[in-house]
Amino acid sequence: FRPMAVPTVLLTGFGPFRDFVVTPNPSWEAVKLLDKERISGAVIHSQKLDVEYQHVDKVVPALWNKLSPCLVIHVGVAGTSDCVRLEQCARNSGYRHADFANYVRPSGCCVDGGPRCLRTTLDVGDLQHKVQAEQGMRCELSSDAGRYVCDYTMYTSLHFALQQALPAPVLFVHVPPAGKPYSVAELADALRTIIRAALSQ
């Protein structure tokens, strides 16, 4: 008799870039607080990603293959935001800006020939309601993840799941800078609520 494997939630945050070199990136600061927690019967695997396109290309598919997650949530910081933003879709093209390693995508695309836009399969309106109701935090739905490494990461994950016919939903969450207005602990609480609600779907 072999015990059944515990379902895994892959939760990623980002390391340093731009305004978040001296000040820690709040996406990773919040995400790492949840590492190895159990939520609704699933265990959280927290992973830090570099703000680099080629790193994402290599590491994100490898994490899918290694963990076989039941849910994937990528978290990044939106430097000018003052609320939690749930991204509904990711774009394949328009990646013109250099990443933190000063690398620019030659084609400006995430996946050459890939679909123009990929959408999360989660009911993000339900997640928004839960964050507002349970945490009393401002939470908005977004259709533009920024055409930078955040958007790129969401597309990479969604495309990998699509190509491999994997059922696990993918979501990208943008958090505001720490203290503007929410603390890292409050952002972690919001992520717990989102994970719990997503798993219940």
From TrEMBL:
MF annotations from Gene Ontology: pyroglutamyl-peptidase activity
Entry-linked SUPFAM superfamilies: Pyrrolidone carboxyl peptidase (pyroglutamate aminopeptidase)
GO terms for biological process, alphabetical: proteolysis
Family matches, as CDD domains: Peptidase_C15
Pfam families documented for this protein: Peptidase_C15 (PF01470)
Keywords: Cytoplasm, Hydrolase, Protease, Thiol protease
GO cellular component terms, semicolon-separated: cytosol
Highest rank taxon of the organism: Eukaryota
InterPro entries named in the record: Peptidase_C15 (IPR000816), Peptidase_C15-like (IPR016125), Peptidase_C15-like_sf (IPR036440)
Family: Belongs to the peptidase C15 family.
The protein's name: Pyroglutamyl-peptidase I
